[in-house]
Amino acid sequence: MATQTEQRKRRLPPEIFDLPVEKMREGYYTDVYFNFARETLRADGRHPRVVMQVFQKRQAVLGGMDEAIAVLKLCSHDWDALTVHALYDGDEISPYESVMTIEGDYTDFAHLETVYLGVLARRTLVSTNVRRVVEAANGKPILFFPARHDHHRVQTGDGYAAHVAGAIGVSTEAQASWWGGRGVGTVPHALIAAYGANTVLAATKFSEWAERNEPDVNIVVLVDFENDSVKTSLEVARALGDRLWGVRLDTSRTLVDRSLWGEMGDFDPRGVNERLVRKVRDALDEAGFERVKIVVSGGFDAVRISEFEARGVPVDSYGVGSALIRGENDFTADIVLTDGLPSAKVGRWYRPNQRVELVL
Predict the structure, then answer these.
(1) Residue 15 within a domain
(2) 178 lies in a domain?
(3) What region, left, alpha or beta, does residue 356 occupy, with left being phi > 0 and alpha being psi -120 to 50 degrees?
(4) Is 333 in the same domain as 314?
(5) C-alpha closest to that of 105 among 86, 79, 85
(6) Is residue 119 part of a domain?
(7) With contact defined as beta carbons under 8 Å apart, do 158 and 325 qualify?
(8) Which of 182, 228, 296, 335 is most buried by a 10 A CB count?
(9) What are the two backbone dihedrals, phi and then psi, of residue 335, each rounded to the nearest 5 degrees?
(10) Residue 323 backbone dihedrals phi, psi, to 5 degrees
(11) 121 near 90, Cβ under 8 Å?
């Protein structure tokens, strides 16, 4: 049986990425100056053998490497003539560490720099953000919920980047598709509204449907629709009994939950806060629903999760959305050797990395 390390080191096959191969080969997605540079070399009959070195400038978690390799394999002029060494998706990387080197005739792959750098930048941003919230959560599950905050075409790769960084669940089938997982979710606000703003009725009907069609799904119900999370949590727990896996607190940062109206004065009562979580937990426990879990969402990031964990707030899982796709993690590619001689611009130089492995 393969070890976890061996399983991690199996790269995804290039075909899984469904790349627009012909357009990439044509330079359609490339900064035009790379296309012009390539054509200049070809017109001059010059085919320099170079070493291209790829790096970024942060402590990060690498994402998008299998996808970047697929770009080179499927869209370069002659993959067999290239020698590529690379790290793996999910690897922790240091500032300026070489994550990939490409050696070969520059005109074979000059038209792909924009594409593979963009892939690495996007996926590493997501992987790094996810790993940081996973670390902050101290082993509690992180649910990856940013699909509604970005274009649908990024879902597949972002979902995989989140997966390799440690997210337990993703919210769409597309996000889970590259590793054969499934999307997870809760009874949404829209279903509650469709049942006349009756959370218990919506949850009951959803549970009945799930029992017939998705018996393995963990039923989690949003309980903030009426802005009374304690009351609604108890009502749902009583109605669903053992079928209820958890309740999800998602109170808007512009609202104060009804259960806190008599306690305001010495804390920020808005949104999902420590006092609200504890009140819901205490109410469920006192009513005999100790096994019902609490999921929180709504503006959570690594800093806020760390604060909750430091104070021992009784949260079982965190749903994190837009914070996981915000920020930047840019990559750079430099030619550092040409025909065996140093050729990097001032301030850059060849940085061999013993950690990179030959890509077959």
Answers:
(1) yes
(2) yes
(3) beta
(4) no
(5) 79
(6) yes
(7) yes
(8) 296
(9) -75, 120
(10) -60, -25
(11) no
In 3D space, the residue among 193, 189, 305, 304 whose CA is nearest the CA of residue 251 turns out to be 189
β-bridge mates for residue 320, sequence order = 144
Instruction: Tell whether 147 and 262 lie within a shared domain.
Output: yes
Same domain, 152 and 297: yes
pLDDT for res 324: 84
**Same domain, yes or no: 100 and 176:** no
CATH number, domain of 261, equals 3.20.20.70
* Residues 143, 295 contacting (CB under 8 angstroms): yes
- Which helix (H) or strand (E) is 114 found in, with range? helix 113-136
Tokens, residue 71:
């770009």
- Cα gap 66→46, rounded to integer Å: 30
Domain enclosing residue 292, as ranges: 136-325
**For each successive 10 residues of the chain (360 residues), what is the average pLDDT?**
50 95 96 95 97 97 97 97 97 97 98 97 94 92 80 82 81 77 80 96 94 87 96 97 94 94 88 96 97 94 95 94 87 96 94 95
| CA gap 293, 246 in Å, rounded | 4
Q: How many CA atoms lie within 13 A of 299 on its CB side?
A: 11
Identify the residue whose tokens are 């290039």. 14
Q: What's the whole-model pTM score?
A: 0.89
